[in-house]
Specification:
The chain is of the alpha+beta class. The chain is built from 6 helices and 16 strands. The longest helix is centred in the C-terminal third of the chain and has 41 residues.
Length: 380
C-alpha cells in the first residue's frame, strides 16, 4: 500500500518543521550567554561512499535553558555535487544567534569556526566531487580504503593541533571573521536545508540529558557518530577533552533566550508568536468583557483592557512600518550578510514584542483576578 510510505514521508517533514521551531536551529533565537568551546574528539570511520562529514556543534534547548551537543556525523549527500556548510553561532544585538547549516554547490561562510576534519574556518578541504563521485581527502578524513577507493591525500592543518576551539563568531572572545567574496557568491546559490535524518539526529541529541553542557561540562560522552541518530552504536566516539573550561551562568534561568521563551498560559489562549516579521502576526483578539457581578468594576477592567489593546496595536503598527522601511533600504543593497543580519534582527524584534505583549496581558489578568475574587466573597 502506498499510503504507509506517504505517511512516513509526511512525518519526516513534520519532524523537520518541529525541530526548526522548537529547538535551536532557527535563525533568530537570541541567547544571552555563549556556547561552550568545541570539544576535542576523533572522527568515526566513514560508513560508505557518498557520505559527507557534518561537524558536531553546540545547539540550544530553550526548554532546558541549556546548550547541548549535537554529535558530528556522516550524512549521505541529498544529491550529487552538493557540499555541507555548517551552521554557526554569531553575536549581534547583545545576543548569540544560530545560523543554520545548508547543502549547496559550494561551502559558504560558517563564521570562521574551526570545526576540523576539513572545515578550518573557511572553505572545505575534506573532499571534492568529480564525475558524479565524491573523493575523500584522507589527510583529514577517516576513510577505509578497502571499501572506498576514491581518495586522495592533500596535507592541510591537522584539526587536533589547533588551539582555537572557540565556537562562535563575533562578540567578546569570538572569532573575528567576515564573509569572503566567494562566501557571498555561495550565499546566493541554491540551498538545500538539512535533510530529515539530520533533523532526527538533532532531536535525538536534544532528548539525551548526557549531552547537555551543564551535565558534561563541555566534554560530551558522545562526540561523534558513524550515522545520524546512531547514539547507541558501538562505534560512537566520546570526547577526549573539553575545548576549554566551561563555566555556565550561575542562574541560567535569567539567561533564557529572549525569543521563543515559553510564557504562562493565558485564559484567552494568547501565546507568543514564532513569526519573523510584524506583518506576519495576526491581530490579537479583543479582550472579552469582564463579568465580576460588579458593573463599576467591570467597566474599570474593560477600560484597562481596551487601553492595553490599543497600545499594543500601536506597537505592532510602528514595528511593521519600521521593518518595511528596512526592507526598502535593503532592496537597494546586494549584501547577503547584511540581509541576514537584518532578518535576524526583525525576527528578534517581532518575537520580543509578542512576548512582551503576552506578559502584559498576563500581568493585567493577574491584577484583576484577585480583586474579582475579593469582590465576589460574601460578607460575613
Amino acid at each position: 500500500m502506498r499510503i504507509i510510505p506517504f505517511i512516513r514521508s509526511l512525518l519526516l517533514v513534520l519532524l523537520v518543521i518541529f525541530v526548526s521551531a522548537a529547538a535551536f536551529s532557527q535563525v533568530g533565537i537570541s541567547i544571552t550567554f555563549g556556547p561552550p568551546a568545541l570539544p576535542v574528539y576523533e572522527q568515526p570511520l566513514c560508513p560508505q561512499e557518498g557520505y559527507l562529514w557534518t561537524p558536531g556543534y553546540w545547539a540550544y534547548d530553550d526548554d532546558a535553558g541549556d546548550y547541548y551537543w549535537v554529535p558530528g556525523t556522516w550524512v549521505e549527500a541529498p544529491e550529487i555535487g552538493v557540499l555541507w556548510t555548517p551552521g554557526y553561532w554569531g553575536w549581534g544585538d547583545e545576543g548569540f544567534f544560530f545560523n543554520e547549516g545548508y547543502w549547496g554547490p559550494h561551502v559558504g561562510f560558517y563564521g570562521g569556526i574551526v570545526y576540523g576534519f576539513g572545515y578550518f574556518g573557511e572553505g572545505y578541504e575534506g573532499g571534492r566531487w568529480d564525475n558524479g563521485r565524491f573523493f575523500y581527502n584522507r589527510s583529514v578524513n577517516n576513510v577505509n580504503v578497502v571499501n572506498i577507493h576514491n581518495v586522495y591525500n592533500t596535507t592541510v592543518i591537522n584539526n587536533t593541533t589547533t588551539v582555537n576551539r572557540v565556537s562562535y563568531n563575533g562578540g567578546n572572545g569570538g572569532i573575528n571573521a567576515r564573509p569572503r567574496p566567494e562566501d557571498e557568491i555561495a550565499a546566493r546559490e541554491r540551498h538545500i536545508p538539512p535533510v530529515p535524518v539530520q533533523a532526527q539526529h538533532i532531536q535525538t541529541a536534544r532528548t539525551n540529558p548526557q549531552l547537555r553542557a551543564s551535565v558534561n561540562q563541555g566534554k560530551p560522552p558522545i562526540a561523534a557518530t558513524p550515522r545520524p541518530g546512531a547514539l547507541n552504536d558501538r562505534a560512537v566516539v566520546p570526547a577526549k577533552a573539553p575545548g576549554a573550561p566551561y563555566h555556565p551562568p550561575a542562574n541560567r534561568a535569567a539567561s533564557q533566550p529572549r525569543t521563543n521563551t515559553p510564557a504562562p498560559r493565558l485564559e484567552n489562549n494568547v501565546s507568543p508568536s514564532t513569526a519573523s516579521h510584524a506583518k506576519d502576526i495576526q491581530p490579537h483578539p479583543r479582550p472579552a468583557s469582564p463579568n465580576t457581578g460588579n458593573p463599576k468594576l467591570d467597566q474599570k477592567y474593560q477600560q484597562q483592557q481596551e487601553k492595553l489593546y490599543a497600545r499594543q496595536e500601536q506597537d505592532h503598527q510602528k514595528l511593521q512600518q519600521k521593518q518595511e522601511q528596512d526592507h526598502r533600504r535593503l532592496s537597494q543593497q546586494a549584501s547577503p550578510a547584511r540581509n541576514q543580519q537584518i532578518e535576524q534582527k526583525h525576527q528578534q524584534q517581532t518575537q520580543q514584542m509578542e512576548q512582551r505583549h503576552t506578559q502584559q496581558q498576563q500581568n493585567l489578568q493577574n491584577r484583576q483576578q484577585p480583586a474579582s475574587r475579593n469582590q465576589s466573597k460574601p460578607n460575613k
